[in-house]
Amino acid sequence: MVGLHEDGKSIVCEDPASRTRFLLPADERLRAAARGDITRLGQIEIELESQMRPREIQARIRAGESVEQVASSAGVTVQRVERFAYPVLLERSRTAELAQRAHPVREDGPDVQTLGEVVAHSFGQRGHDYSQATWDSWRGDDGKWVVVLSWKAGRSDNRAHWSFAPGAHGGTVQALDENAEVLLNPNAYRAPRTVRALDPGKDAVVQPTLDSVDAFSAGKSTSNGVPDEPVAKVIDAPIAEPDEEAEPPLPADEPEEVAEPAPRAKGKKNHPIVPSWEDVLLGVRSQRG
């Protein structure tokens, strides 16, 4: 470092190998160091450390901030914040313990059970590990204490908040969010229903097939427990209509004779001619009415 620049806002630095000079922006501490003003440099350090008073550090910790957050925002070391934050952290931990012994407020008054007992019962219903949950507290802007419960379920991080009012018999707590209300209401939880696989032998509907129809026609019983009954096999074929020009087949040993077709029986009025059952089974063009 060569020294301050003429503008007074930068310092001049030089590379000892190449003798190349360059400028760096400087704050007040760096400018004091460049001038060699040790007294001013020490005074600046004291002023920076005193920007956040111990009382302010404790107030921010009591409001719920962590030591790391306060140190980062104040620009001071974590060790400096811890010296003033330790008694406040003990106060927050003690308040969280007292809140667990408080009684949740119901519609008809305070509950007989404590907050810790009700929450432990709700965790047991849901299968959560209550020993892994953590309690904390802080004081809000209105001067009232807020108690928070943090736990992990699967991959989700959950939090529930209650307002805590110290008093006789442990004090009282009131839910501040939905998670807190659900934990206080044991009837709000419903165990998930298990999915049961269907048994094809009992619940499945057996669709009829050509093989099952064959079994019926042969006088056999099928797997769906239907009694044995001979049932005719129905083939999906169009019903043959009587054809006036068709002639019945003649025996091979007899000479051909031209037989006159039998007169067709006239059905009753407005009643269609229904083919016989044999015609349906064999698919034979019937000559009968």
Automatic annotation (TrEMBL):
Residues 1-164 form the DUF3071 domain. Residues 241-259 have a biased composition (Acidic residues). InterPro entries: DUF3071, SepH-like. Residues 236-289 are annotated as: Disordered. Pfam families: DUF3071. This is DUF3071 domain-containing protein. It comes from Amycolatopsis decaplanina DSM 44594. The lineage of its organism: Bacteria, Bacillati, Actinomycetota, Actinomycetes, Pseudonocardiales.
